[in-house]
Every structure is written in structure tokens, then in C-alpha cells.
NPC1 like intracellular cholesterol transporter 1 (Hippocampus comes), 1306 residues
Amino acid sequence: MHPSILQSALSSQGLRGILFHTVQVLSQAEHRAGYCAFYEECGRNPSLEGALIPPIVPCRNYSRARELTGEHYRKLKEVCPMLDKGLGSTFACCSIKQLTSLEMSLTLSKALLVRCPSCAENFAHLHCINTCSPNQSQTVKVTKVMNVTHLGKTREVVVEYQAYLATSFADGAFQSCQNVRIPATGGFAIATMCGRYGAKLCTPQRWYDFQGDTSNGLAPLDIDFRLIKPGEVEGVPEGVIPYKGRALKCNETTPSGGQVCSCQDCKESCPVLPPPPLPPGPFRLLGTDGFLVISIILFCKDQNCNDVSQRVIHPAEVSCADRNSMAAQAFLSSVFQKWGTFMATYPLMVLLVSAVVVLGFGTGLMFIELTTDPVELWSAPNSRARQEKDFHDKHFGPFFRTNQLILTAPGRKGHIYDSLLFGTQNFSGLVSKDLVIEMLLLQKKIQFWSEDLNRTASLKDVCFAPLNPNNSALTDCAVNSLPQYFQNSLDNINAKVNMTELGVTKEVDWRDHLIYCLNSPLSFKDITDLGLSCMADYGAPVFPFLAVGGYRGDEYTNAEAFILTFSLNNYPRTNVKYNVALQWEKEFLKIVQDYQSNPTTNFTFAYMAERSLEDEINRTTAEDIPIFMISYAVIFVYIAVALGEYSSWRRILVDSKFLVGLGGILVVACSVLASMGFYSWIGIPSSLVILQVVPFLVLAVGADNIFIFVLEYQRDVRKPGEEREQQIGRVLGNVAPSMLLCSLSESVCFFLGALSTMPAVKTFALYAALAVLMDFVLQMTAFVALLSLDARRQDNNRCELLCCVTVATQKSNQPNEGFLLPLMRKYYAPVLLNRYMRFIVMLVFLFMFSASLYLMFNVTVGLDQELAMPKGSYMLDYFQYLYKYLEVGVPVYFVTKRGFNFTTEEGMNAVCSSVGCDQFSMIQKIQYAANHPEQSYIGISANSWVDDFIDWLNPGSRCCRLYSFGPNAGNFCPADKSSFLCGRKCMAKPSNGVLRPTEEQFNRFLPNFLGNRPDLQCPKGCVMSIYTQIIGETFQKSDTSRFMAYHTPLTNSQEFTAALLRARELAYDITQGMLKINGTSPDFEVFPYTVTNVFYEQYLTIVPEGLFNISLCLLPTFVVCCLLLGLDLRSGLLNLITIIMITVDTVGFMTLWGIHYNAVALINLVTAVGISVEFVSHMTRSFALSIKPTHVERAKEATANMGSAVFAGVAMTNLPGILVLAFAKAQLIQIFFFRLNLVITLLGMAHGLIFLPVVLSYFGNPVSWPLVPTDELRLMMRRSTSFLSSTRGAGPSSDIALPPTEDDIT
């Protein structure tokens, strides 16, 4: 054979031998007890780049395990105590270097697990077995080696191996860690240690696979964990014995002295708690709704009282009340007659003085303040929610300003992505690269020129920057959005790389990174070869529920909405940057609206800014001012036309009352201006509610009085020898007591209503009370003078507006009754007061009252915020999107007031939730509540800086260390410094496994904790910039603090109110527990704070508050009516009952028409009492003063005479103006001004003109005989005697009251 051929053959044979040897090494490794598969460190893994820690790998070394002595033994005992068999008997397969590297790796991972000692012990147990077990070759199989040159020597290194574990150990270790939480986020630690699967889909196999995957940035080599079931031999190499060690349960202590895990981290440690009590059910009687039963009983009972007949009154029974009534009426009539005569005699002087007085009051309008801040309007300064808000804002600063977009892309087709790492994943049409980039470009657009800063301003000038608040860059701003998973970098979104996994090579891109980050938002590096972080560019995690919405379960990539949130600092209104923030929000809205109107926009979205609510309310108020003006104009035209007499076409310009109507309107306007001016003088602010409601109320009251006065004058005939001024005085004397009765009742009613604790109701009541009073005063002065001037013009046959023009046709000497009075006298009153009709009316109205009483107990309490918006507002779309797509509710802070000592061990245990903490600590109680979100409305439990601080101090982590030497020796050493420089721990390992700093250590290291920005080396770090977000500006041992949780999504005011109530109940329970801790101040308190509490607290007390206010309003109507009618208790009582029925029926109809009961409705109900007085009191007084012989005839007279004036003055004045309000854009005006006032007016008219006459015909007082003239008495005596003779035997059921004789009266 040729030498060259021989050499070639030998070379080929040698190569085959080497290859054979390699395969033999990889596939037929020996597995013997007491032998190692690898030993010592041999440099970096050549196949791994971009690892978060140096990927140091071991040397391939099949050899006996080494006996450990000296420092080697002490290191093993410290890192892997479960392998310690005692000095001289401990063998291991790891060197000191390997133990040091293992310690570093465990430190990083155990930082998340240290809250649960048994979990941390099991985690270390697993990796100690793989790395250091003396029987290492029996539990691992090396599957891949590579040659690496290290320190000038080339060696084989292990870059991949299989680890065999018995499922008993693997499952037990996993279960002990499964529920360990991260207090800072409220999530589970295992979510960050299970890759793409997150906490929900994590299993033991997936957990171990992630730990052994080098793409996680922490594993130095690939480990293929094989979990072997008992008795299973398939797939297990010969000689391999799966590790069957015992994993500690989470409710067990550890051999090293660690305590059982807390309830929050270990369900098995939780005490057995009874389920929370269900909310009380509805009131029930006889197996059905109790209020319905009561209403039916009342209705049936009332029917037994309808047939009431007036007994015959003997002349000797004339009461003192009759004489008092006569005296009161005579006195009031006399006073007003003299007053009216004087006012009519000097009209110009009266008008001048009135104008001066109104002008004097009106000058106060120069100092008027309009309250537009909803907090100031609806929350009393001394209310609990307001005090809690002030306390929170003082210590922690106001809640940041929120500006948000919710973006969707309906109609776009989704796609299925076959990921190399995560398998098949569904992507909705929204979650696409082009839309992610489009959203990224949108959020970078906003900048503008600021006059306040005298430069171009952008987001960084006003943004909330929790990690760098003092010198913020744009990347420090807290912007939560999906592009933050890519650090808002277009390059990161476009990044792609080929990656090999399990022998398959594929391209990975933004989708793989996104899938990973949505499930592991706390990761500093994804598991792909992209190597990107999941943390936002401002340094905090973005949880998926803050970035996407409209998904099911954990299918984040199938989300239907992107959520983009800009958080701005909530500066005080006096700060120059407050205006800059408002301007930024204005530009934000402008850019978003322009973007929305762009036809090329791919998104359909809704948006809002912090200023949007106030802006939209102000906008719609301005837009609806013309509606109110039209409403008042319609009322004015009606009054001007309806007051005219129109006896002849030739005298139409003479008999019209255009100027009188205009004067009446001006009287109303002047009374409102005087009221507003007076309160502006004394510093009581006004509001838009006052501007909208008070003029309407005063117009209703004023118009009624005007009609009664003018119609009475038109129906009156001047007596022979009587001057015009005397006639006006006499007419005023007849009607002014009735006007006084109504005006005084209403004014006192509103003044008492000012006792309300609700600012908007209180100021409304004050303004309305004085306006009604001023309206009456001006009617008694200026309007009387104006009528006197108009009567003089009319007597001279001069035309209105053209006073120089006269007509020849003379005025008729007959009284002008118009068409309404004869109509009601001839047709309406007889039909209404027919015997059968009266019974039907009583039946119908009592049924309506009983039904309304039932409905009243079912009225919905609250005001949904979307009702404050006008129709077509962009905020309505935003609320719709908000309720549909957001997966969590508003944050709720549990705030601790001063007086609790956090620095003692007992104090920390009463707050924290980790090992050694009280099972009923603050955080643990909040967790118990979060376990029942449907009742507690707590969706995500509170995070705890106390837990993080304790974990940060743990000597098992790199977070808290001290410099060992040098100028900084003994000072705090950051986690990114080498262990060589920082070899000392802040605290020693506790003997009982429960780490608690002393008071001195607490105060020393807390500032370091708060200034330690979290990173890979120390994920438990905090940061000084959010110092005030945790414990206020200057923390002492008894200072205030707060702990943040999240509500469940709250969609209406009933849920917001219930959430507030449940949170307060929880906070009270927490307070009672913490008061038992030694050293706690007796006045210590924990309270829940949510930014919405100040708006919804009112609904906790608005029902009793409303009953109190309405009762206060009803009281003066009874008292004043009784007094002005001469202590006529029966008339006062019937007056009161009718007004109560109107109020109850109004609330019942509110339920039927979907009008919720709230502060705005309460203002209208208080107004309803005032308007009801107008409908009722005039009629009651007219009946009481009637001298007809029977109840029915007196009721007919009152219905015809006064009912016609009330109908024309109140009902027909209000209705046209109310109907115009139906065209308003604001939903609040449509619901609470159109609907509710329409109900109030119609019910008032029905009760005043239908029900009240019938009730008076049954139950009214008999004739007040002292009012009857002597000649009429004789005639009535003869009639009654004749009637009694013809109906002898009728007895006491007669409807005739026997009048007293003349001697009796004398």
C-alpha cells in the first residue's frame, strides 16, 4: 500500500474514532452513585450572547465526588444546607467557585421568592442537587459539550444536560411557590418565572423549562428537565435515578429555621374564614315585596274613609278658631289695603325707590364667584370624603391628571401566528405591526408654544414622572401603552432575528416579544434572541390590563382595544404649570380630534382629557342658554297675552297687558339679581344650577301672584265714589294674604333647606329663599305701582306702547271674567264635584299615591357621569368604550393616618403579608376581600412597601449590602457593585427565619430602599421620587402611609357607591385590628381613598338628607297656612297632605320615567314643594274664606274663582317654558329640568285642581261664620231651616252646617 494512502486511511480511521468517542460521551455517560458528571468552572458559554449575568459553565469531568472541608464546607453549608451531612461526611460535585456563582444566581431568583421560605428552600434545593449533589451523575445526563479555551487551557465544557426529577419533588416544589406574590404589583412571582405562560397557565413542567432555558437571560446553560412519574422507566437512561427528595410544603417551617409562609403566599396557611355575609335582601312581608303590601293596605284603608259627612253645627259651637280666622283675615286685609292704596297713589316714587334698592343689591354682582369645580359643588368641606381627600392631597399630593385614548379597529381581519417559542397564537386585527407603529407616532405628536413658560412645551414639562420628577426627560414620563413593551422605539418594533429552538430555526419578531411581555411584564429581558426588555422606557412595568382591553382570560393578543394613557401632574391651580397642563390637554384634544377626522385613520377610538368633563359641561351650558332664553320668552309672551282683557277689537291695544307682563318678568329678574347680588356681597358663591333653576322657580311663583292680582282686579267693579288707587288697594287687600301665604311658606321652606350639608343644595336654597322673598316685596311695591300706572292709562283709553293715541270706545262697567272663569264655573267644577266623580277622583288619586309610595322605595339612587354630558359629546363614546374594554377599575388607596408605629416588629407584622406576618394584617385583610370581588369590589389586592422593604433587607439578596473597605466602608452599597467591594450584608440571617429590622435599622436603611431603583440585580428596589407616593414627604415612625389596590370595573353610580361603602367597612375593620397594637394612638385611623369618593359619598346619605330637607320644607307650609288662616289646623293639614302626595307621586313617576334620585333631583323636589304651595295654598285659602252653605258649593266656588287663576298663572306659565327645554342638548336639562319639572307641574296641577277640591268637599272646615255678613246670615238661616224641614230624619249626616244667629255672632 502506498504510504500516502496508508496515512490517509489512518487519518480517516482516527477521525472516525474521535467522532465515535464524542457520541459515546454524549449518549452513554456513566451513571454511578458518588460520581460527578461535571466539576469546576471552565469559562463562558461560547454559544450564548447577551446574557444578563456572565454565563459561566462547568467543565466536563466524570469523577468521584469531593469531600468538603474548611472554607469549601462552610460555603456549601451556607448555599446548599440540604446537602450538609456533617464535617467529614459531606461530599459534593461543585467547587467553591461554582458555589459562589450558584449563590449569585439563586440570589437573583430568590429575591422574588424570599417571602415564602419553604418555596425559596425548594428552589435552592433543586439547583443544589443539579450542581452539587454527590450523586450528580445519577440525576443528570450531559447531552452537549463544547471545547472552550479558558486561562490558556482548552477543555470540554457542558452546555446542555438533562435533569431527571421525580414528580413528587417537582410538583411539591412548584406548589409551594405557586401563590407567592409580588407586593409591588399584586401579581404572582411565578408569572415572571414561567415565560409566555404567566401565572394562570404555568405548570411544573413549564416552570422548570423556563428555568433551564438560556433565553431567559439568567441560565448559563440549557437544562432539559425530565419529570418522571412513579414506576415510569420509558425514556430514563440506564443507571439514572430521578431525584426523589422531599419538597417542603408552603405551610411548613424549613430546616434552617424559616417560618411557614403567609396566607397571602400560601393558601394552606390561611385560617378558615366564613364566607362574607350576603347583602341584605329586599324588605318582604307575606312572601312578597313589603313596601307593596304596605301600599295596598294603605290604599284599602283609605277607601274606608271616603264617605265622610259634615255634621250639623249648632250655633253655640262656633269656635275660637273661627273668631281668630276672622281677626287674622281682617287684619291682613286692612294692612294690605292701606299699603296698596299708598303704593298706587305714588307709583313713580315707588318705582324709583324699588329700582334704587335693586340696583344697590345688584352691585354685589361685581364680586360674584361661579363655582364650577364639581368637588366644591357636591361635596361639603366638612364631609368625610372631602376631609379624606384633603388629607390625602396634603400628604401625597393630588391624584394625577388622566388623559386617555381607547383605540379599536373593527372590521380588520386577525391572523394566526405560528411562533417558534409560543406555538400557535391568535392575533386580532387590531394587534398588528402597522397599528402599533401608528399609535406610537400618535403619542409623540403633542407639543406647543406656552406663554406661561415662554418656550415650546411638551409632555415632559407637565407629565407625571415617578422615577425622575425633578428633571424629567420625555422618556421619564408615565405613558402606559402597548408600544412601551418596546420602550417606544421604532427600531425595537422592527427588530427581527433568526432563532433556533429544539432544532427548528425560525424568525422571531415583535410578536414573540409582545407575547412574552404581556405575560411577563416585569421581565428585564425576554426569552427570544431579540433580548429586549419588557419594562417601559420610564422604568416601570406596564401591566397588560393597562395596555390592552376587550380580551378574554389571558388572551391578550386577541384584544379588541389598545389603551393609551398619559398621566400629568395635578398642579395646584395657583401654580403656573397648572395652566401649562390645561394647555397640553387642549392640544391633546385638538390633535386627537384632527386625527379622528382624518379619513386615512385606521383606528376607531374614544378619548378624554382630565379637563373634558368641565369643558363639556361649560360648553353645553353655553349652547343651552338660547334654549332657556326662548323658554323665558315663551313665558313672557304668554303672560303678556293672557293678562289682556280683550272685550272689544277696537280696545285691544288699550286692554292688552304687554307692559304689565313685561313688568312682571322684570320684577322676577330683579328679585333674582337682588338675591345674587346680596349673596355675592357676603361671599357666598353661585353656580350654574342656581342660574338655571332659581329664575324658573321665581317665575313660577311670581307669575301666579301676578295672575291672581291682575285677574282679581279685572273681575272687580269699582264701587261708587271709589278712587282708582283705593280700588287697587282693596283688591290687593283681598288677594295679598294669599300671596303672602304662598311666598312666606316657600321662602321659609328654602331658608330651612339651607341647613343641608350639600353645598349645591345649600346655596340653591339660600338664593331661592331670598329671591322668592324679594319677588313678593317687589310685587307689593313695584308691581302695584306699575299696575296703577297701567290702570290710569286704561281709564284714559290710551293705547299701550302708543300712549299718545286714544280710542273712543269706552270700557264696559261690567266685570271682565274672561273665558276661563265662566268655563270652570259652568262646566268644570260641577262635573268634578259630582257625587260619583268625587268618589272616582278619590279612588284614582289614592291608588296613585299608594302605587307611588311603593315605587318611591324602588327609585334608583345616583347620577351616572355620562348624564352630565350633552348628546353627541365625545365623552359619551369614551364612557361606552371605558365600560366595554377596561378590565380593572379605579385605584383605591388605604391610607393610614398618623399614630401607628411601623418601625416595631409588632407594627410591621400588623401591616405586611409575608412570612411571620399576622394572618389578619392590613394587607392580608385586603387580600381576603379581593378573594370575593363580587361583594367587596376589590379586584386586585393592595401592594405593600413594608413587604418589599423587608424583602429588600433580606441577606439572601444583593439589594442591601455595605461597603467592606475604602472611604465608604460601612455605607450602603448598590446592587450593581461587585461582591468584592460589598461583602457585608445590612442584616444577618435571622435564627427564626423571620427577618425584621430594629427601629434603628429601619430608619437607617429606609432612605436607601426608597432611593434604590429596581433592576435585574435588585428587583425589590424602590425609588426616592415615589417617596411621597408611599409614605408622605417626611416619614417618621408614626407617620402616614398608603397602600394601593384596584377596584373591579365600576360602570354606574350604584356600583361606585357600593364600592365606597364596602371599602369603608373594610378600612374600619383594619383600623380596629391595628388599634390593638401597642403604642398605637387612640385616634389612629385607616380610610380608603379613591378620586371618585367625593362625588359618590353623597349617595350614602342622600335619602335621609332628602327626607330631612323636604320635611323642613313641608313644615313651614303647614305652620304658615295655619297661622295666616287664624290657626285653622284642618286647612293646614289638608294643605300639607296634598303637598306630600304631590311629592310622593313625583318620586313614583321618577321611577317610572327612569329619572334617578340625586342631588339635582333633590333640588327639583325642594322646588316641587315650593311650586306645590302655589297650586294648593291659594285653593285652600279660597275654600276656607268661602261663605257658601255647603262644602261642595264652597269647593265649586274656590275651584272656579281661584282655580282658574292658578291654572292660568302657574300651570300655563310653566308648561310652555318647560316644553321648550325638551330641545336642550344637555341630558341633565332634558331629564331633570324638562322631564322632572313637567312631572311636577302636571302632578301639581292635577292635585291642586282635581284632587284638592274633592278632598275639601269631603273633609274641609265648615264655614267660618264670623266671615258671613249679617244679611246673608238671615237668608242662609231661612234656607237651612227650610232644607232641614224637608229632609227631617237625615240627622247628622246632612251636608248643611246650621249657621249661628246674629246674637251668637254678636
Summary: DSSP finds 41 helices and 31 strands in the chain.
